[in-house]
Structures are given as structure tokens and as C-alpha cells.
Amino acid sequence: MKGQEWYQADAVAEEYDTKRFSRGGRLIDEREKQAVIDAVAPVEGKRVLEIACGTGRFTVMLAERGADITGIDISAAMLQQGRERAHRTGVADHLQFIRGDAARLPFPDDHFDSVFAMRFFHLADTPASFLSEMCRVSRDQVFFDTFNSVSLRTVYNWLLPMGSRLYSESEVLRLLHGAGLRLDDESHDFVLPYGFYRAIPNDVARRFRDLDVSLGDSPAGALASVSYWDARVE
Q: In the 3-class helix/strand/coil scheme, how is the chain assigned residue by residue?
């Protein structure tokens, strides 16, 4: 994985949410959470695994909604932030955080109803192996997002500390087929890339977000920087 040492640093974990989801980044947080809820619903009682759960944004959110959820991440520092979040929201007894490697998931086959990963595949050096593991431990659903190779994200990708792996739709479809997954649904968003939103105040960002959504419904939507992929185990 790209940037493993950077990602596991205490200072990075402590500032991760603040740097990415303050200012206009709040809109990104809202959209990503809605994407996960829409994909996994109905949530209550469902056994769910989050890959690369980080600070527990989604793990805690789904626990609050009644999911039987486990979050796995390679970073002890990130997991500590997640545990603190779970305690603050009163769901620490309703979820599990595990330190582990997404390439070798410590679960039996077909153990979860749904397995998902957000903000993960752009760092994956061997995406096929990760996706195969996600498929192995899921009996039904695999959900994840990617950053797109034909998008405005390419303009600033080289400025990022670790860069990002960018995917075409055809590559994602090949990966799904190779993992034994069938694409059930897809959606594409954020013609204006994440970095733009994080650079401006939230009230200004909301006006641009309205424009962004409109662009998504036009031919310019083909330049969306983010895609959400909802697949089923074949």
C-alpha cells in the first residue's frame, strides 16, 4: 500500500478528520456517508465489515443505526481515534475494531453480509488481491469507491503526498470479474475534485456543490472524479 508509514503516524491520525472534513470538506463527508448508507441499507442487524476503517467515521455511523459492524485497519493510531469516537457516541459496545491487513483478512469465508471500503483503493498497489479478499469474506455485497482517471483529479494528483491510483471504468469492471463479483449499481460524483472543496469555506462550498450536482446531470458528468461501485458475489 502507498504511504503506509505516513498513514500510521500518530500526528496524521489525530489531524486526519480535521484536515479532510472541515471547511468545504464537510460536504465530502456528508456525501460519502450517504453513499454508504444507501448501499448498505437496510442496516439494522446486518453483519458488516469495513476495510481500512481509519478513524471510524462509517463504522460508528452504522453501529448507531443497528449494524453488527467490524472495522479493520492497519494503523493502531487510526483505530484509537475510532475507539474514542465510538465512546463519545455511546456505541463502543456495539462494534469491534481490529488491527489487521486487508490483504489477509482474519475471517472465514462468507462471514459478512456486506463488506465495504472507502478511501482505500486509490492507495492499493495490488487492487485485485484486496478485492478478492473482500469477496471471499462476503456472502452477498461488496461496495467501494475509486478515483477516476478521466477527471479533474488528474490536474492536482501529482501534488498529493502519496498521489492516487486512478481507475477507468473498464479497469474496475475487469477487477470485479476477476474477483468473482457482478456489478449491481454504480454512481459517479464530484466533477469538482475533493481538493477544491477542502480549500474553501463551507458556505461557499455549498454554492459550488449545487453547481457540481448540476454538472453531474449534464455531459460534463463524464468527468466525475469519484465513482461508487456496488457489487454482488456471484
A: CCCHHHHCCHHHHHHHHHHHHCCCHHHHHHHHHHHHHHHHCCCCCCEEEEECCCCCHHHHHHHHCCCEEEEEECCHHHHHHHHHHHHHHCCHHHEEEEECCCCCCCCCCCCEEEEEECCCHHHCCCHHHHHHHHHHHEEEEEEEEEEECCCCHHHHHHHCCCCCCEECHHHHHHHHHHHCEEEEEEEEECCCCHHHHHCCCHHHHHHHHHHHHHHHCCHHHHHCCEEEEEEEEC
pTM over 0.85: yes
- Find, among 4, 129, 117, 145, the residue nearest to 51 by Cα: 117
Q: How many residues does the chain have?
A: 234
Per-residue pLDDT of the chain (234 residues; tens, 9 = 90+): 544 554 455 555 556 667 777 889 999 999 999 999 999 999 999 999 999 999 999 999 999 999 999 999 999 999 999 999 999 999 999 999 999 999 999 999 999 999 999 999 998 989 999 999 999 999 999 999 999 998 878 776 666 655 688 999 999 999 999 999 999 999 999 999 888 898 999 999 999 999 999 998 888 888 999 999 999 999
Homologous superfamily (CATH) for 4-147+161-189+228-232: Vaccinia Virus protein VP39 (3.40.50.150)
155 and 88 Cβ atoms separated by less than 8 Å: no
30-31-32 Cα angle (round to 5): 95
